[in-house]
Amino acid sequence: MTDMNQTDIEQTIRDQIAQHSVLLYMKGTPQFPQCGFSARAVDVLTQIGRPFAFVNILENPEIRATLPQIANWPTFPQLWVAGELIGGSDIIYQMFQDGELQPLIEANSPAV
């Protein structure tokens, strides 16, 4: 992705969000999160037990730089469900604790 211009990067992000009903932009991978906030988000999504896609922003510096501008959200991780930004680690955790996140994920991610 090193030769992509800003428009291409933005389109890639929009395509990723459109193609995956549950998408986590995170530092690292679900198997090896590279920050505590990403680990917490993965833990919550794993407890829900439905599949989700992820993008490792550490391997995609263009996405890491561009997504906060598109999302108007400065930090990672970022959870997107059905094309909408849900929020970061604290919001994900709070929604999970309040019982709001699981039905949202289940409605947008088929059981395996």
From TrEMBL:
Keywords: 2Fe-2S, Iron, Iron-sulfur, Metal-binding, Redox-active center
Residues reported to bind glutathione: 27, 64, 76, 89-90
Record flagged with keyword Metal-binding: yes
Binding site for [2Fe-2S] cluster: 35
InterPro entries: Glutaredoxin, GRX_PICOT-like, Monothiol_GRX, Monothiol_GRX-rel, Thioredoxin-like_sf
GO MF annotations in UniProt: 2 iron, 2 sulfur cluster binding; disulfide oxidoreductase activity; metal ion binding
Record-linked Pfam families: Glutaredoxin
Glutaredoxin domain boundaries: 22-86
Family per record: Belongs to the glutaredoxin family. Monothiol subfamily.
The protein's name in its UniProt record: Glutaredoxin
Gene source species: Faucicola osloensis
